[in-house]
From TrEMBL:
It comes from Pararge aegeria aegeria. This is Jg3643 protein. It comes from the Eukaryota. Keywords: Membrane, Transmembrane, Transmembrane helix. The chain crosses the membrane at residues 12-33, 86-104.
Length: 121
């Protein structure tokens, strides 16, 4: 069912995807850090409610305001947020490209056959 052309394309695309996982590993780390910061924000908010009238409550309020004003995220070239969404967008791009290649496979095979048959030696 699979020709050598499509199997090779599939193999190269899957190898490229696995190699790109190494590149996007920091995105996964950043997502885990963001989740920990959200948990820490909930803990500090609870602590602020308990210590509302004293200095510790004011420090908790200041810390929560700092977290709200400067959220923890990295941006690549001021264009791409470095989080799990970047990895999902990249994988959807690769899968879409792979589907397009597999759909154009019969056209490419017919084109190469026609070009090879019309060549004069």
């Amino acid at each position: 069912m699979f020709t050598e052309f499509s199997f090779t394309t599939l193999l190269i695309s899957s190898q490229h995807f696995l190699c790109s996982l190494v590149v996007f590993f920091p995105c996964l780390i950043m997502e885990m850090i963001s989740e920990d910061i959200e948990n820490m924000r909930a803990i500090v908010a609870d602590k602020m409610i308990i210590c509302l009238g004293n200095d510790q409550g004011n420090e908790c309020l200041y810390f929560l305001q700092c977290l709200r004003q400067r959220p923890m995220n990295y941006v690549i070239w001021r264009a791409f947020n470095m989080n799990f969404r970047l990895l999902l967008n990249y994988s959807s791009l690769v899968i879409t490209y792979l589907i397009c290649l597999l759909q154009f496979k019969p056209i490419l095979i017919n084109f190469t056959v026609n070009v090879n048959s019309t060549v004069q030696y």
